[in-house]
Design brief:
- The chain has about 425 residues and is of the alpha+beta class.
- Helices cover about 35% and strands about 25% of the residues.
- It has eleven helices and 21 strands.
- Strand 19 and strand 20 form a beta hairpin.
- Helix 1 packs antiparallel against helix 2 and helix 5 crosses helix 7.
- About 35% of the residues are buried.
Length: about 425
């Protein structure tokens, strides 16, 4: 209970019809979250009125405290929604799943006891290489699918970008720099020969991403432990954290290239290969007056065809600052999710929270806006490999798990950014 604001922040509530139930029986109700946001708006309005009269530091602290409570509740709701969204492993017993079950059984024998014979025979039978240069074996299809689904759930950029599976090391996507010449002619007029289109290709190499969970002999000997579930749960967070950071700010060296790592130029002089930016109006900050006007400029820097499916991307600190913005009619621009497990919105567009986005600072690109499904491409090379290592960290058994991932901007016209500078 906050003695000053009268708000009570807790993890459970007697009614769960509007909330998300956690596995432990706790719930964070959406109604409770909405009540907190209403209290935030009331306190912020009071703060603005008081600032207009004389300024009050205590009111600033009160608003910041409620703002932090909103972040905490939203984070808790997202974590519980993630747990409930985790997919179950496939248990089909149809004839086409027989080979998959054989692979799963052989893989479990390999993980638990290091037996490689059955697994090597299966992969050789499938005309695949039994082990790569670094060793290891392919995980069952169900486990690979589960890891991919979990990553899409918890990796913010993966959840909004375009994802393509490839079987090679590099995916090349052709695009047209200049199209064929066209024009209007009369029904019987002569047609001049048209110029040929100019084509180029974008390359998206798949880089190796790894995790190395450790297990004890006791855990591996326990037949009640679901090995597939254990490996997926151990590697998902490591994979998600690493690839999430790369999709935002990766330099492209042995990792995907993040969209904020591309050259940004003023949107008025935008050219293909660069990202267009809108200046915030002040160095390292929003403009002192009408700061939301620049957000409007950012939205309309994007062509209409891209705005239909566009979303804002920023980190939690930037979102907390924008949460205080209001339009000319006094309505708050930031709005909480309409339902439990949904996304907050900013000026009616979805808001995606990516902690790897830069903080607001001089010349930082702290806000991105665009159609990421068309603008950013993630390539996943088929296959996740596991190498069992019982020697390097005795008495623990290490499982060197690798997957190959690449990424980069595929349409430079589909993403715009805000640069925190005067111009």
């Amino acid at each position: 209970m906050d003695t000053e604001t009268g708000l009570e922040f807790h993890d459970h509530a007697p009614e769960q019809k509007a909330g998300i139930a956690s596995p432990g029986g706790h719930a964070v109700t959406h109604d409770e979250f909405m009540r907190t946001f209403e209290a935030f708006k009331e306190a912020n309005d009071e703060r603005l009125d008081e600032i207009a009269r004389r300024g009050d530091v205590l009111l600033d602290e009160k608003v910041d405290r409620i703002n932090g409570a909103i972040d905490a509740q939203q984070r808790h709701m997202e974590q519980i929604a993630l747990k409930n969204a985790r997919p179950a492993l496939e248990t089909s017993l149809r004839p086409r799943a027989i080979a998959s079950r054989e692979h799963k059984s052989a893989f479990e024998s390999y993980v638990r006891g290091g037996e490689t014979g059955a697994l090597r025979a299966l992969e050789t039978k499938a005309l695949s290489v039994a082990s790569n240069a670094d060793g290891g074996y392919l995980v069952p299809v169900e486990l690979e699918r589960e890891i991919g689904q979990r990553l899409a759930t918890i990796s913010p950029i993966r959840s909004i970008a375009s994802v393509r599976e490839i079987s090679g090391n590099v995916y090349k996507k052709p695009f047209m720099l200049t199209g064929p010449a066209t024009g209007w002619v009369g029904e019987t007029d002569a047609r001049a020969q048209t110029a040929s289109p100019t084509l180029d290709a974008l390359s998206f190499p798949a880089m190796e991403l790894y995790a190395m969970p450790a297990a004890t002999a006791t855990l591996l000997d326990d037949s009640a432990v679901n090995i597939d579930e254990w490996i997926a749960s151990e590697v998902e967070l490591t994979f998600a954290v690493q690839e999430g950071a790369a999709f935002v700010a990766g330099d492209g060296v042995n990792k995907p290239k993040g969209f904020v790592s591309y050259t940004a130029v003023a949107n008025t002089s935008w050219t293909w290969g660069n990202l267009g930016y809108i200046a915030s109006g002040a160095a390292g900050a929003f403009a002192s007056s009408d700061p939301s006007d620049k957000l409007v400029d950012l939205i309309y820097a994007l062509k209409a065809g891209y705005r239909q499916n566009a979303a804002f991307v920023m980190n939690r600190k930037t979102q907390a600052a924008i949460r205080k913005f209001k339009d000319s009619g006094g309505a708050y621009l930031w709005q909480p999710p309409e339902q439990a497990g949904g996304r907050a919105s900013l000026m009616t567009f979805p808001l995606v929270e990516a902690e790897d986005m830069p903080d607001v600072a001089a010349n930082s690109l702290a806000i991105a806006f665009g159609d990421f499904r068309r603008g950013y491409l993630i390539v996943d090379r088929t296959g996740v490999r596991v190498l069992r290592d019982p020697y390097s960290a005795k008495p623990y058994v290490l499982f060197y798990t690798t997957k190959r991932v690449g990424g980069g901007v595929q349409d430079f016209d589909a993403i715009k950014v805000m640069k925190f500078s005067a111009s």
